Amino acid sequence: MPGKHVGQILWTDLTVSNCEEVRAFYEAVIGWSSTGLEMEGRTDYLMAAPDPRPAPQEGMEKTAAGICHAMGDNAGLPPQWLIYWGVADLDASMTACEKLGGKLISGIKGYGNNRYCVISDPAGAVCAIFEQND
Fold first, then answer.
1. What confidence tens digit (pLDDT) does each residue in 4-44 have?
2. Which of 40, 43, 51, 98 would bridge with 36, disulfide CB 3.0–4.6 Å?
3. Structural domain for 75, as ranges
4. 3-state SS string for the chain
5. Residue 111 belongs to a domain with what CATH number?
6. Is 66 inside a domain boundary?
């Protein structure tokens, strides 16, 4: 069933050029721990909170966010926390975005059977919309 968790924040990533430094910063300041995740020949990080929370996917109860290198598919993303919102139909949401004055920042990207893209709203705020098909 496409579009699980519609309207909910599914994930948050931070894409930066100094990934290791920023990972260490959030470990020290927030209390997160990290696990390396191989992505396109580099190591990005899954940041985990000490306590479990409700999770959009089974097994992610302690995962708080991702900290990623600004390389590969992430090249060109602004150095800000990027929220991924669940949508029912990515194509329809992309069409509505442009029709209502938003912009498509990236083309459609895949993550397993899931699809997403990065958009900006009419005010210029950036987020990702994510069609969850797993």
1. 778 888 888 998 989 899 999 999 998 988 888 888 788 88
2. 43
3. 9-131
4. CCCCCCCCEEEEEEEECCHHHHHHHHHHHHCCEEEEEEECCEEEEEEECCCCCCCCCCCCCCEEEEEEECCHHHCCCCCCEEEEEECCCHHHHHHHHHHCCCEECCCCEEECCEEEEEEECCCCCEEEEEECCC
5. 3.10.180.10
6. yes
